[in-house]
Amino acid sequence: MKTEDSSLRPQGRVLIVTAVPAERDAIASGLNGCAQVDVIAGGVGPAFAAAAAAKALSEADYALVVSAGIGGGFPERAEVGSLVLADHMIAADWGAETLEGFASVDELGFGTASFSTHSGLTASWQAALQNAGASVAVGPILTVSTATGTARTAALLAARLPGAAAEAMEGCGVAAAAQLCGLPVMEIRAISNRVGPRDRESWRIPEALERLQTAGKTLLEVLQ
Ligand SMILES: O=C(O)c1cccc(C(=O)CC[C@H]2O[C@@H](n3cnc4c(=O)[nH]cnc43)[C@H](O)[C@@H]2O)c1
């Protein structure tokens, strides 16, 4: 596997994988037609995200892979309307329940449920977002196959994975595809809702999509 480089190769292409077309279009509008970046909507959940990323990576040469979209923010860590960049992407439900509690695939010896992100580019992107006036945190982003819908599950996740900033449903699928291709990975989430009791009516999707547009605009600055 390639080791992390603190900067992108000048000609390196970037693949961004979102779940749905609305997220793809928001990021793409910020990127303003930048030929260095391809944005695809791969579907909802880690399986479709991994399959879509693997297909795209088999069709062209890329230097970096990014999982992007809206997400839930953990209270006190990421407020609705803010952005979160991942320092780690953690598959919160890849493992087994045991009588003593949850055991991750790492603990079971079946691989890994935690992926490190490109630290240099994450720091540069955070700085560019802050310069653009966005509120942005850096921390672990969880990938779940079932979106959290109760305060109990939110509390269990926060206790098991201290510092978790956000959750979404695709990141680790994209990270697995990137890892198999030896490529660095990143994740960014625009927070549309709190992780906790499900209240779909309260999700601030248009605001989150606006933040994703800012994410696209500032990525352009980072790449140039
Ligand atoms: O209805 C719309 O207009 C619309 C526009 C953009 C995105 C959506 C989605 O529903 C995307 C589903 C996507 O959202 C992520 N997500 C958001 N909040 C959470 C959460 O609290 N827990 C887990 N995932 C969340 C997730 O990655 C889904 O793929 C609708």
CATH class: Alpha Beta
Structural class: alpha/beta
Query: Rg to the nearest angstrom?
Result: 16 Å
Biggest β-sheet description: 5 strands, mixed, barrel
Shape verdict: globular
Whole-Å distance between the termini?
A: 26 Å
At the fourth CATH level, what is the homologous superfamily?
Answer: Nucleoside phosphorylase domain
Q: What is the H/E string? A: EHEHEEEEHEHEHEHEH
The total of beta strands comes to 10
* CATH fold-level assignment: Rossmann fold
User: Which range does the strand content fall in?
Assistant: 25-35%
In DSSP terms (H or I, runs of 4 or more residues), the helix count works out at: 7
Organism: Xylanibacillus composti
Pfam family, one: PNP_UDP_1
GO molecular function, one term: methylthioadenosine nucleosidase activity
GO biological process, one term: L-methionine salvage from S-adenosylmethionine
Outline:
This protein has helices spanning 21-31, 46-59, 105-108, 119-131, 151-160, 171-180, 205-223, and strands spanning 14-18, 37-41, 64-73, 83-91, 95-98, 101-104, 114-116, 136-143, 166-168, 185-194. It is an alpha/beta fold and 224 residues long. α2 runs parallel beside α6 and α4 (119-131) packs across α7.
